[in-house]
């Protein structure tokens, strides 16, 4: 089945030049001595903010250098149609950018920044699902002086749209209920995976799914090296495991809780200093091999959300690479995102910006090219990788998973992201306050706590 069309709209290469003559004598702040920032708004999307570097008037912007992205918007086909819909009440789609001098934030409830000017970039999104389009690249005059035709501040930006097709998967039920997983394209739903939730035998932390009968003894020791071997006293949730099978019944990925989710002493929550963790596993050489590690905890304070960190494990000898670290709302849920092209200073981002040099793991050992769009193992992780939308506590959560086609070469690749999404969703339950009881599917006779 073909992937779904998506468009990645990016804003980057920001810079600001202000002529010396235009510097007000009584100005409280000037870009040369204090950072500037901008607010970037696209209709129907959350506001994003970014730092704007100051460039001396005599300097030219280094167009040949790669600059971090200031903002990224991911548009589905439905988003594009909604933005492009003709209406006598709606204006044509555009990107609105407000530039401020001074620092971001508020002081005594008043915005600290001083508005310098605004830029509007018209967007013609038709056809961008198949062909890249640059809407603006270069300098533009901003501020009051620009309208008067005198020497004015100059703002540099690059706005472009690129095709970013993705596979979309939808769980047909909550992960702990062992649901089917469907691939979605428009109104078409096609079953591609089945999930099996189980409790790993806590007396044998090396026991794996019975589906891999050919596992060798030499590989049984690695699992314990990623988690805690000792039984921890007090409140804990442990031993959860979910295995993803293809339609033939073969296991193609798994997520296994290797570090129990334990309440911190004197509290009923999992703390950041002592998180629980999962291993995301892929089959290879007749056994499971670790691909990634997900840590999760319950944040304190006003956020009171699910904190997480996901690390890629290239191989047993190399250091892990952090691909995502952020927080999801415990009440409302949200999107777990791995996006290596995100801005490093913007708001409205769920993912952590990570260098594009992060290496990707080896290609699937089974080499089943069912999807056939990937660049593994020849490329690297770059741009948008995946996202998984999960619901908050107490709500029926059927995770929706989006995976960029450039990171899927075979069934096992897609299944690994599905297993990761299941682990994120289950972590929402594992990090619930221990004063709250879990649903029966998440409790067994060995572990009735929580």
Write up this protein.
It contains four helices and 24 strands. With 450 residues, it is mainly beta. The strands form five sheets. A twelve-stranded antiparallel sheet has the order 21-20-19-18-16-15-13-12-11-24-23-22. A four-stranded antiparallel sheet has the order 4-1-10-9. A hairpin with a 4-residue loop joins strand 15 and strand 16 (251-259).
Q: How are the secondary structure elements laid out?
A:
Elements: E1 6-17, E2 36-42, E3 48-52, E4 71-76, H1 77-84, E5 94-101, E6 106-107, E7 110-111, E8 114-122, E9 133-142, H2 144-148, E10 153-163, E11 166-171, E12 180-185, E13 188-199, H3 222-226, E14 236-237, E15 240-246, E16 251-259, E17 261-262, E18 276-284, E19 287-298, E20 306-312, E21 321-328, E22 334-339, E23 384-390, E24 400-404, H4 411-430
Terminal Cα separation, in Å?
A: 41 Å
Average per-residue pLDDT, rounded, comes to 80
Number of helical regions: 4
Shape: globular
**What is the number of E strands?**
24
Which secondary-structure class do the elements indicate? mainly beta
């Amino acid at each position: 089945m073909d992937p779904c069309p998506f468009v990645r709209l990016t804003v980057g290469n920001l810079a600001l030049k202000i002529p010396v003559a235009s510097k007000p004598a009584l100005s409280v702040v000037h870009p040369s001595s204090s950072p500037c920032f901008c607010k970037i708004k696209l209709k129907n999307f959350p506001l994003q903010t970014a730092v704007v570097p100051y460039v001396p008037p005599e300097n030219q912007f280094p167009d040949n250098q790669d600059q971090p992205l200031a903002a990224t918007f991911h548009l589905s086909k439905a988003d594009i149609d909604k933005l492009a819909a003709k209406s006598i009440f709606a204006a044509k789609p555009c990107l609105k950018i407000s530039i401020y001098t001074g620092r971001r934030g508020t002081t005594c409830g008043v915005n600290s920044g001083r508005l310098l000017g605004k830029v509007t970039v018209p967007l013609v999104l038709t056809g961008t699902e198949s062909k890249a389009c640059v809407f603006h690249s270069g300098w533009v005059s901003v501020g009051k002086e620009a309208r008067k035709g005198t020497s004015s501040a100059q703002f540099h930006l690059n706005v472009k749209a690129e095709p970013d097709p993705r596979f979309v998967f939808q769980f047909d039920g909550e992960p702990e209920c062992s649901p089917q997983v469907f691939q979605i394209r428009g109104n078409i739903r096609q079953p591609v995976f089945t999930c099996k939730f189980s409790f790993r035998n806590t007396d044998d932390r090396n026991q794996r799914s019975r589906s891999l009968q050919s596992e060798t003894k030499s590989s049984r020791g690695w699992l314990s090296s990623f988690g805690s071997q000792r039984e921890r006293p007090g409140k804990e949730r442990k031993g959860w495991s979910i295995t993803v099978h293809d339609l033939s019944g073969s296991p193609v990925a798994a997520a296994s809780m290797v570090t129990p989710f334990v309440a911190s002493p004197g509290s009923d929550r999992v703390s950041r200093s002592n998180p629980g963790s999962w291993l995301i596993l892929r089959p290879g050489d007749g056994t499971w091999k670790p691909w990634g590690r997900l840590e999760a905890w319950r944040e304190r304070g006003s956020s009171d959300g699910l904190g997480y960190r996901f690390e890629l494990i290239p191989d047993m000898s190399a250091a892990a690479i952090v691909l995502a670290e952020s927080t999801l709302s415990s009440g409302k849920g949200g999107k777990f995102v791995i996006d290596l092209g995100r801005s490093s200073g913007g708001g409205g981002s769920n993912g952590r910006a990570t260098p594009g040099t992060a290496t990707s793991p080896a290609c699937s050992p089974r080499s089943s090219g069912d999807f056939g769009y990937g660049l593994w193992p020849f490329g690297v992780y770059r741009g948008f990788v995946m996202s998984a939308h999960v619901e908050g506590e107490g709500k029926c959560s059927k995770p929706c998973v989006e995976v960029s086609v450039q990171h899927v070469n075979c069934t096992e690749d897609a299944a690994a992201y599905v297993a990761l999404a299941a682990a994120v969703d289950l972590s929402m339950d594992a990090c619930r306050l221990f004063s709250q009881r879990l649903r029966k599917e998440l409790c067994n006779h060995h572990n009735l706590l929580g």
